[in-house]
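Ticket #4471: structure output looks truncated?

Reporter: J.K.
Steps to reproduce: submitted the chain below (147 residues) through the standard prediction queue, then opened the result file.
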Amino acid sequence: MAGTGREQPIVITVADTPLAMQTVIELRRVVFGNEQRILLSRYEDPEDGFSLNLIASIGDRAVGTGRLTPAYDRAAVPTITWVATLPAYRNRGVGSAIVRALIDEAERVATTPFTSTPRLTRSVSTWPTDSVRSASRKRSTASPIKR
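Returned output as attached by the reporter:
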């Protein structure tokens, strides 16, 4: 909301349609390819098919993304990858809201708290579609994840 002095909330949604996944891939291409010059032939991979991909939006603009991949035969623990925020929206809590939502989801479906080290003892095989925890915290303007 330009000129009002109030920040618009960060809305976190699940990328659960082909169109939403196109948005995720475009965000990756812009941030990792165009800006950071990590030139890949594709900004998607097979893990997208069984991972939880999120999109962060402010107003009607998709401004960030991130992915949580469950533990599987090639990864012993759930992993957070492909976290990206458009340059113009950095330092507004977008990346933090994405990561917090991904950690909350990892903790929600696991029996032990999620950490960045291999301490998670339960493999996460599927992502329930009925509910996802809120991405908001004290300093975040993020709203709950929307499906």
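Triage note (M.O.): checked the attachment and the full token line is present. Residues 116-141 have pLDDT under 50 and may be disordered.
Status: closed, working as intended.
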